[in-house]
Design a protein that fits this description.
Order of helices and strands: HHHH
Number of strands: 0
Structural class: mainly alpha
Radius of gyration: 18 Å
Strand content: under 5%
Number of domains: 1
Length: 121
Amino acid sequence: MEAIMDKTQLYTLQRLEKELNISSNQTYPTGTHTINLLIKKLQGDVNAKRKKMRGKILYKLGLFGMTDVRGNLDFARINHYIKYIGSNNPKQKILNYLTCQELQLIVTQVDRMVDKELAKK
């Protein structure tokens, strides 16, 4: 017998839909295994989208000079910068905990900042 979706699964699906900008007019299968597979697939899509944006932020901040003595990215400085970047990160999250919407705002802000500084040189 198929189990009915519980509240945590429904909440997770709704959160993932929101991050991926998928309409919520969909019906879901009621099997626990099927629901878990769907959650896993959507989570993978969200993570891929976030990874791409985090990579762009890291690249731009590396160009901006947030590196250590050996030339590697200085994640402590980067996370501190992202945490206190301003109105685009009001909850003061570090880079890995930002949602897609927050990452989009921060990518735009970092792009503008780095491009402005590079244009001066």
